[in-house]
Specification:
This protein has 90 residues and is an all-alpha fold. The chain has two helices and no strands. The model has no long low-confidence stretch (mean pLDDT 79).
């Protein structure tokens, strides 16, 4: 057994890894390209959008808009009838 072990260790010690080249990664790694910078919005559009925003009518929840009747809110928390006489379902 010692003979095989010695041969193995001798081969491992004598092994020299091939030198790495800069072109070794070609085909395995994509070339880096920086993403395009985002386009800047036009200043004219910003001013117009800001003015439109300032002129918007404020809508508050629970209030009807002018000229509309407010929709009646539903009661989502309705009480279920208690079945005291019904047997427990265990």
């Amino acid at each position: 057994m010692a003979n095989y072990e010695d041969m193995y260790l001798k081969e491992i010690r004598s092994y020299k890894a091939p030198p790495l080249k800069a072109s070794d990664s070609e085909g395995h790694v994509q070339k880096f390209s920086a993403p395009k910078p985002p386009q800047s919005p036009d200043e004219v559009d910003l001013a117009r959008d800001l003015k439109d925003y300032e002129n918007q009518q404020v809508e508050l929840e629970g209030q009807a808009a002018t000229g509309e009747m407010g929709a009646q809110e539903e009661n989502w928390f309705e009480d279920e009838p208690d079945d005291e006489d019904a047997p427990a379902a265990h």
